[in-house]
Amino acid sequence: MRSVLMHISDLHAGRTFHPRVADQLAREAHDLRPDLLIISGDLVQRADFASQWEAIIQYLQQLPQPQLIVPGNHDVPLFHVVERFTRPLDRYQQYISANLNPVFERPGLVVVGGNSAHGLTIDGGFVSDEQQRIMAQLFARYPDDVCKIAVLHHGVVHPPGHEKRTIVRNVAEVTQMLEQSGVDVLLCGHHHVSYVGVAGNAKGFVVCQSGTSTSRRIREGERGRNAYNVLTIEEATIHISQRRYVEMSGRFEPLGEYEFQRRGAWLPAHRRNEPQTL
Length: 278
Ligand SMILES: [Fe+2]
Ligand SMILES: [Fe+2]
Prior knowledge:
Layout: E1 3-8, H1 19-32, E2 36-40, H2 50-62, E3 67-70, H3 81-86, H4 90-95, E4 103-106, E5 109-113, H5 129-140, E6 147-151, H6 171-180, E7 185-188, E8 195-199, E9 205-209, E10 227-233, E11 237-246, E12 251-261, H7 266-271, E13 276-277
Parallel strand pairs: 1-2, 2-3, 5-6, 6-7, 7-9
Antiparallel strand pairs: 1-10, 4-5, 8-9, 8-13, 10-11, 11-12
Helix pairs in contact: 5-6
One fe (ii) ion binds at residues 10, 12, 42, 72, 74, 190, 192.
């Protein structure tokens, strides 16, 4: 069965939220009518402030359902230090979802979310042993021919030119878990840079990163480049379309297009589509 997924990220409700871009994103999401809307973390700018959670809840209500959401490092409080270290995800779980491992399935597809956010650093991430075990167990319920998509906030590769940005600290373990689980695509965010590439050591998997979809927190040289991805999953292929907001037209417009064959290794297929950042 053909599935269409819309992948947005790093909404950052708060001072840097861009309402005009966010309104356009919501319009395009409803036009697309995806089978699932995926949000890969950093919902708020500062998790300490209730007003930002309330704002993002209101915005999420304007977007299509169903939604699959994971937390990011900005969804952990910064100033409430005790809470940050002892109960870092309490606010996310109170306002967004108690479930840190959401699962979406339809015939031929499963999407599993995981948590890479914690209170030990401001920017970094890791996937705990428990989170890895839960994700592996969830994926193991599905046969090989089902397309498996993992969602984390932090990624496992550095897009070219962004080598200093943080990825999951335990990258070797996480990559191995995803690969052994037969994951086809990892969706992530955090760098505020759109990127499609591959990771892994054997068959590997596709890494699909979204830039920030609605925030002005755009990295050097990326100004005006809010973005999202559309994935079309078919039995034999995965198509990824990167969309970027263009100020002149006031719309997100297609930029990169990638097609991957689901049978065999990802790497040869990808060489026909050079990795690129937006
Ligand atoms: Fe972010
Ligand atoms: Fe982040």
